[in-house]
Amino acid sequence: MSLYCWLALVALVPMTLSTEPGVKVRLTAKGLEYGRQLGMAALQEKLKAIRIPDFSGKERVSGIGKVRYSLSNINIKSVGLPTSAVNLVAGTGVKMSITGAFISLQGNWRVKYLFIRDSGSFDLDVRDLSISATIAVGRDATGHPTVSSADCAANVGSARVKFHGGGSWLYNLFSKYINRALRRAMEKQICPLVNKAVSDMNPRLQTLNVLAKVDKHAEIEYSMVSPPAVSASAIDLNLKGEFYNIGNHQEPPFSPKAISLPPQVSNMVYISLSAFTANSAGFVYNRAGILTQDVTDDMIPRLSPIRLNTRTFGVFIPEIARRFPGLMMKLVVRTAKDPFVSFEPNSMTVNATGTVTAYAIQPNATLTSLFVLNLETSVSAQVFLSGMRLAGAVNLNRFDLTLGTSSVGQFRVKSLDSIFEMVLKVVVIPVLNVQLAKGYPLPALRNMNLLNTQLQILKDNILIATDVQFTG
User: Fold this and answer.
1) In Å, what is the CA distance from 383 to each residue of 36, 201, 331, 421, 448?
2) Torsion (CA) 43, 44, 48, 52 in degrees, nearest 10
3) Which of 254, 418, 454, 238 shows the shortest CA–CA distance to 339?
4) How many Å is the maximal CA-CA distance in the chain?
5) pLDDT of residue 3
6) What is the full DSSP assignment across 149-193?
7) How far apart are the C-alpha atoms of 206 and 210, rounded to whole Å?
8) Integer Cα distance of 357 and 290 in angstroms
9) Which residues 6+ apart lie within 8 Å of 61 measured at CB?
10) I need a labelling partner for 151 at 20 to 30 A (CA). Which of 119, 121, 265, 371 fits?
11) What is each CA distance from 344 to 108, 238, 379, in whole angstroms?
12) Which residues are CB-neighbours of 263 under 8 A, at least 6 positions away?
C-alpha cells in the first residue's frame, strides 16, 4: 500500500448532477503524513528496481589519447530516503519532495586504449539526490479515482565511484568521466520510474467500493458531486452518499441539505453523514416493500400472558370473541410512508407512519381481516461502527394508534395499547435491530481499517473522526 493508494480518498468517483452531497469527507494534514510514510516505503522499493542499461563511450585523455570505456551489469545495492515531505497544492493535489536521498550501485567496467585492455568492478555512491513530483488526482469514465504525475524533477548532487581491479592509476583517471556518465543515466531513470509508480497505482484504485452492496435489496453510491476542494491544509470531498435499489436507481422526492465539517484536525479523516443518506435508505426499502413484519403467536415470549389469539383480543373487542372463537391471530405491521430520520446534537430520531392489520387464522389457514389500525411511531437510534460498516439499533420512544377500518365494529383503540407496546418492543424492534446491526459500508479502500474512531451526532449529520491503517 502506498501514498498513491492512500490518495484514492481524494477522488472517490464519478461526476453526478447533484449540487449538494449526502456525505462529506475531509483528509487532514495528519492523514497526508500517514500517506507520506506509506508512500516513501513503497517508493524506496520502486527505486531499488532502477535498471541502468549498459553503456559505453570514448574520451580523449591528455597524455594517453583516445580511451574507450564501457559499463555493464549495473544494479542497485541500497536506497535511502531520509528526508521527505508531502504538501497540498491548492486546486491540484499533492506535491512530494525528497532531499538528501542516496543510492548505492555496483557494476563492471572495461577500458581500451592503445594496445591495452583492462577491466574490473566498481561501486558507486550517489549522494544528495533530490526528487520533486506533483501528483494530480482525477477520475475515469467509470467513476473510479485516478492518479497521474503532473510534473517531476530529479537531480543527483554527487556521485563517487570506486574501482576494483586493474591499475590503481586508472581509478583517478576515469572517475570523473564515469561519475558524469552515471549521474546523467541516473537522472534520466528516476522520473520515468516515479511516473510509472504513480500510474501503476490505478489498477489498485479500482478496488474502491464506488458502488457498495448493502444487502440483496440495496446498494449505496459514493460518487463525487463536485471536484475535490484542495486547500493548503486539507482536502474536502463531496460524495453522493445515496442508497438505491439494486438495478433501479430512482431518485427520492427530496434532496440533501448543505452540510459542513467542523474545524477539527486531530484525526486523519473526518466523515460527515447527513440525514439525507439515512432517509434515502428509508425511501429505498419502503419502495422495495420490505418494511413489513408478520407477527404470530410463536414470536411472543412463552411466559407472556398476552397471546395473539381471539381470546385475548376478545376481552377488549367482544365481537371478535363472538364471531371467531378459539382462533389464533396474525398481525402484519408495515410502513405506509417513507420513514423520516432527523439528527439533533447527541440525538437521532426516526419517525414512521404505518398500519397494523389484524387477521384471524381460520382452521384451513386462510386469513380473515378483523381491523386495520393506523400506527405512528417514534424511535430513538444509536449508531456505531462495526468494522468498516456503520450500524445501529433503535428503542421505542412512543407510539400512537387510531382506528382505520374494522370488520368487528367500533372499539376503544386505547385499550389495545399494552398489547401493541409488547408487540413492538418484543417482536418488531428486535427483528429490526438484527438488520440494523448488519450496517452498511462506508467509503473505503481495500485493506483499510479504522483506528481511534469517535462518532458524534450533530445537527443534521453524524460525524466520524478517525485514523486509518492499511494492511497488506
Assistant:
1) 32, 34, 29, 23, 21
2) 60
3) 254
4) 127
5) 41
6) EEEEEEEEEEEEEEEESS-HHHHHHHHHHHHHHHHHHHHHHHHHH
7) 9
8) 16
9) 67, 113, 173
10) 265
11) 72, 22, 14
12) none
pLDDT for the residue numbered 119? 82
Contact 452, 267 (CB under 8 A): yes
Report the Cα 234 to chain-centroid distance in Å. 17
Cα–Cα distance for residue pair 143/194, rounded to 1 Å: 25
Grouping H, G, I as helix, E, B as strand and the rest as coil, residue 141 is: coil
Give, in order, the Cα–Cα distances in Å from 415 to each of 225, 321, 370: 51, 16, 16
Nearest to 214 by CA among 269, 141, 293, 288: 288
What single letter denotes the amino acid at residue 237? Answer: L
164 neighbors 122 (Cβ within 8 angstroms) = yes
Low-confidence ranges of the chain (pLDDT < 50): 1-18, 168
CA separation for the pair 381, 273 (Å, rounded): 15
Query: Residue 11's pLDDT is what?
Result: 39
d(CA 294, CA 405) in angstroms, rounded, equals: 19
Q: Helix or strand or coil: residue 144?
A: coil
- Give 226's strand partners: none
- Please tell me the total number of residues recorded for the chain in this structure: 472
Can you give the pTM of this predicted structure?
A: 0.85
In this structure, are residues 159 and 186 in contact, taking their beta carbons and an 8 Å threshold? yes
Q: What 3-state class would DSSP assign to 464?
A: strand
Grid cell of 423 as nine digits = 408487540
Virtual torsion, Cα 193, 194, 197, 199, nearest 10 deg: -100
The DSSP code for 414 is G
Radius of gyration for the alpha carbons in the chain, expressed in angstroms and rounded: 34
Structural contact between residues 403 and 440, judged by C-beta atoms closer than 8 angstroms: no
Cα→Cα distances 258→9, 123, 221, 229, 455, Å: 21, 61, 18, 15, 20
**pLDDT at site 259:** 87
- 466, 449 in Cβ contact below 8 A? no
Amino acid at 439: G
**Assigned C-alpha cell, 235:** 482536502
Contacts of 256 (CB under 8 A, 6+ apart): 18, 20, 21, 22, 241, 274, 276, 277
**DSSP class per residue in 211-244:** EEE-SSSEEEE--BSS--EE-SSEEEEEE--EEE
Residue 27 DSSP label: E
Asked if residues 359 and 366 have their Cβ atoms less than 8 Å apart, the reply is no
Compute the distance between CA of residue 461 and CA of residue 271 in angstroms, rounded to an integer.
Answer: 10
